[in-house]
């Protein structure tokens, strides 16, 4: 619930920096679930609690199928999803597109998991390629619809500021909350990376359902930009956590060696 509160609470301060359509996209960004693959990758790189990251990011994706359409309706002050669909209809369509394939994959795992593991390197291109195609087609459609002529350069610069402010607050608040709750360093890393990310791969197909019949270019631009910013910032942050962990382990080993020598 942190992101929706940030997007809604900061609207009087941040919305003048962008166009109204772009801030609708910012609110949609705030309602999306966390990304799964990159969250787990960064937690692993930072030497955090990977099993917790897997559970957290996966749960966010599953809950988002049901919660995101409702949050979009609330944040955009609408009684439906903006295209004649009720919230329940939107949930049903998103469930069919995102959750049914996931459930089917889990059911089939007992029969295909050995073959999948044996061809993991090749299938990686199918996995990543499908996400690339989804994003590419959505962005291409936005360009054809005339996205750039409708977005002033000042609004684009303002959008960078808006995304950066929201991401910074999310990172600071998740880190502060994890420490206040007494979590260890590995759990803190999982909280920070899973609690501050947003899924582009989930956001694009959801937007096609929630905003079908209208131009979704301005809706998708904030999540596309936020996705790139979060990758760059979290890569630096993960390296910093790694150096801190290496330094801590080095100090512990040095202290142990000194104690053994004595």
UniProtKB/TrEMBL annotation:
Q: What is the lineage of its organism?
A: Bacteria, Pseudomonadati, Pseudomonadota, Gammaproteobacteria, Pseudomonadales
Q: Which InterPro entries match?
A: Na+/solute_symporter_sf (IPR038770), Put_Na-Bile_cotransptr (IPR016833)
Which protein, by its recorded name, is this? Sodium/bile acid cotransporter 7
Q: What start-end ranges are recorded for coiled-coil regions in this protein? A: none
Q: Name its species.
A: Pseudomonas duriflava
Q: Where are the transmembrane segments?
A: 22-45, 52-76, 88-108, 129-148, 154-173, 206-226
Q: Keywords assigned by UniProt?
A: Membrane, Transmembrane, Transmembrane helix
The Gene Ontology CC terms held by the record are: plasma membrane
């Amino acid at each position: 619930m942190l992101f929706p509160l940030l997007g809604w609470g900061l609207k009087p301060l941040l919305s003048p920096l962008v166009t109204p359509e772009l801030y609708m996209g910012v609110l949609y960004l705030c309602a999306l679930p966390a990304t799964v693959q990159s969250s787990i990758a960064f937690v692993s790189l930072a030497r955090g609690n990977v099993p917790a990251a897997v559970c957290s990011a996966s749960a966010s994706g599953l809950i988002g199928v049901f919660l995101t359409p409702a949050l979009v309706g609330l944040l955009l002050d609408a009684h439906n999803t903006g295209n004649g669909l009720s919230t329940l209809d939107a949930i049903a369509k998103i469930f069919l597109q995102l959750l049914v394939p996931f459930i089917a994959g889990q059911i089939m795992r007992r029969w295909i998991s050995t073959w999948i593991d044996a061809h993991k390197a090749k299938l990686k291109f199918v996995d990543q390629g499908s996400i690339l195609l989804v994003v590419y087609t959505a962005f291409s459609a936005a360009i054809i619809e005339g996205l750039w002529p409708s977005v002033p350069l000042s609004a684009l610069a303002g959008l960078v500021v808006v995304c950066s402010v929201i991401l910074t607050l999310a990172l600071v608040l998740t880190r502060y909350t994890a420490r206040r709750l007494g979590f260890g360093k590995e759990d803190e890393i999982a909280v920070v990376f899973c609690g501050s990310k947003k899924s582009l791969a989930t956001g694009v197909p959801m937007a096609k359902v929630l905003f079908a019949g209208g131009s979704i270019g301005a809706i998708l631009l904030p999540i596309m930009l936020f996705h790139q910013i979060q990758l760059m910032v979290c890569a630096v942050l993960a390296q910093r956590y790694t150096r801190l962990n290496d330094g801590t382990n080095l100090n512990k080993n040095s202290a142990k060696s000194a104690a053994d020598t004595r």
